[in-house]
Amino acid sequence: MKRFLSGDEAFAEGIRLACPDVISAYPITPQTVVVERLSEMVEDGSLDSEFIHVESEHSALSCAIGASAAGVRTFTATSSQGLLYMAEGLPYAAGGRFPVVMMNANRATALPWNIYGDQRDSLALLDTGWIQEYAADAQEALDMAVMSYYIAEHRDVSTPFMVNLDGFVLTHTYENVDIPDRERVREFLPPYETENCFDFEHPKNIGFSAGPETNFIFKYKEHRAFERAIHVIKEAERRFGELFGRKYTGLAEEYLTEDADYVIITLGTAAGLCRTIADELRREGVKAGVLRIRYMRPFPNEEIARALKNAKAAAVLEKDISFGNAGTVYVNVAAALQWAGVSTPLYDFVGGLGGKDITHADIRNIYESMGKGAPRVTFMGIGVE
Amino acid sequence: MSTKEIIWIGRGGQGAFTAAKLMGAACTEGYSLAFPTFGPERRGAPVRAFTKLSDTPVTDRSQTAAADCIAVLDKTLFTPELFSLLKEGGKLIVNSADETEGAVSFDADSTAAELRLPVVNTVMLAYVGKLTGLITKEQIFAAIDGYMPERLREKNKKAVERVFEG
Amino acid sequence: MKPYLREKKSFAFEDIPEDTCFEAGYLVTVNSGWRSRTPQIDNEKCIGCGQCYLYCPDGVIAMDGKTPVIDYDFCKGCGICAKICPKSAIELR
Question: Which of B24, B71, C46, C82 has a CA that sits 20 to 30 A from residue A144's CA?
Answer without folding.
Answer: B24
